[in-house]
């Protein structure tokens, strides 16, 4: 019969035995089986590709085709420039940045221009680039040999974001990234509170809705900024939150594969966008093509799982068990109930309560605050 000392040594050895972790559960249900591969393609590949297409489409929509002043004869204009020619054929009334220049020669303005040399109506060469948000002042024109594009009935814009107003497209892009900063914080909190699954769906819907509102075309510049801020707020979340959700189901040895797919999908979007834009030749349809695919999330929502780890931490063990059993069935594996229960206990009781921190605590650490500010500005 073992003595008390031997029993104590045996109990000590048992306490030193490592408890199973969530990684052990993943090994049981399959660390990178068919289920994880399908998730990579559907969630990471699909969402990142759409995200890339949407971003590069925005850059394209803010470009301006070669322009000329409608009110001034061709012989009084410089090629594709904001400058008009004076009677002495010296381009100086408007410099390339859109500001009034110093009159040269006799100082007279070109025919049809205002007294300060500014043109009030521009025409654009849409054989080189289709009308964009920055330039659309007439009905969308089709290229030679093509039918009138869809959505041609939409009310054309009167933006003329050129010359003196050339700062507007840059402002739209800056506001887009400002929305991204705010959105990353907002969606991060939402996904921690409500779960990865509903936050993913909500970000998809916001992203698609922002594209639709861009298509409707608000009448004021402030409204356009608001719409693009909305799109920017969900921009990174649309690709990064599905990535986080997928890697939570991948074993640690396989987590580089989802990352490589994310990078490849983004690059593929950049390669495809110019060809898609060339085939469509209409910025409005381009918005639909690059935004609408995210609405497929509504049809596929039932197949998007919640994070099992998040469910376990939040005490929703029955739901976590169902999800892991489904993953195991797709991968041809079986979930060990005893191991699951041990991991569940570890998740709920084995981790001590951590004090909550907020972004304001950064101010207590000057070096951390400095690094955060630098990263934010550089990004």
Automatic annotation (TrEMBL):
PROSITE patterns, A to Z: MFS
Cellular component GO terms, alphabetical: membrane
Disordered, as annotated region: 80-118
Extent of Low complexity compositional bias: 84-95
Pfam family, one: Sugar_tr
Gene3D superfamilies, alphabetized: MFS general substrate transporter like domains (1.20.1250.20)
Entry GO MF terms: transmembrane transporter activity
Residue span, Major facilitator superfamily (MFS) profile domain: 120-379
Chain intervals with Gly residues compositional bias: 98-110
Bilayer-spanning residue ranges: 38-57, 166-187, 199-216, 257-277, 283-304
UniProt keyword terms in alphabetical order: Membrane, Transmembrane, Transmembrane helix
Membrane topology (UniProt): Multi-pass membrane protein
Localisation per UniProt entry: Membrane
Protein name in UniProt: Solute carrier family 22 member 13
Species whose genome carries this gene: Amphibalanus amphitrite (Striped barnacle)
Lineage summary: Eukaryota, Metazoa, Ecdysozoa, Arthropoda, Crustacea
Gene, per the UniProt record: SLC22A13_2
């Amino acid at each position: 019969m073992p003595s008390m000392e031997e029993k104590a040594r045996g109990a000590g050895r048992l306490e030193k035995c490592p408890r199973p972790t969530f990684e052990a559960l993943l090994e049981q249900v399959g660390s990178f089986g068919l289920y994880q591969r399908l998730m990579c393609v559907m969630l990471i590949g699909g969402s990142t590709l759409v995200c890339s297409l949407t971003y590069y489409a925005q850059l394209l929509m803010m470009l301006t085709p070669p322009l000329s002043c409608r009110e001034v004869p061709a012989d009084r204009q410089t090629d594709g420039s904001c400058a008009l020619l004076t009677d002495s054929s010296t381009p100086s009334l408007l410099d390339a940045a859109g500001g009034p220049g110093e009159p040269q020669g006799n100082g007279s303005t070109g025919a049809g221009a205002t007294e300060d040399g500014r043109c009030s109506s521009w025409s654009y060469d849409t054989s080189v680039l289709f009308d964009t948000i920055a330039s659309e002042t007439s009905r969308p024109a089709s290229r030679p040999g093509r039918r009138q594009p869809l959505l041609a009935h939409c009310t054309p814009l009167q933006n003329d974001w050129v010359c003196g107003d050339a700062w507007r497209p840059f402002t739209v892009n800056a506001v887009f990234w400002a929305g991204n900063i705010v959105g990353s914080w907002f969606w991060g909190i939402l996904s921690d509170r409500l779960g990865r699954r509903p936050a993913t769906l909500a970000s998809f819907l916001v992203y698609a809705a922002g594209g639709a509102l861009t298509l409707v075309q608000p009448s004021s510049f402030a409204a356009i900024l608001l719409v693009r801020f909305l799109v920017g707020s969900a921009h990174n979340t649309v690709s990064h939150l599905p990535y986080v959700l997928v890697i939570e189901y991948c074993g640690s040895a396989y987590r580089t594969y989802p990352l490589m797919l994310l990078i490849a999908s983004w690059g593929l979007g950049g390669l495809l966008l110019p060809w898609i834009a060339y085939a469509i030749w209409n910025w409005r349809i381009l918005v639909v093509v690059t935004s609408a695919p995210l609405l497929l999330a509504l049809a596929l929502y039932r197949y998007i799982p919640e994070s099992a780890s998040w469910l376990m931490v939040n005490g929703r063990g029955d739901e976590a068990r169902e999800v892991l059993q489904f993953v195991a069935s797709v991968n041809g594996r079986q979930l060990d109930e005893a191991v699951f229960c041990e991991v569940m206990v570890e998740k709920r009781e084995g981790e001590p309560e951590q004090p909550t921190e907020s972004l304001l605590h950064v101010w207590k650490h000057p070096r951390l605050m400095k690094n955060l500010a630098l990263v934010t500005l550089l990004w």
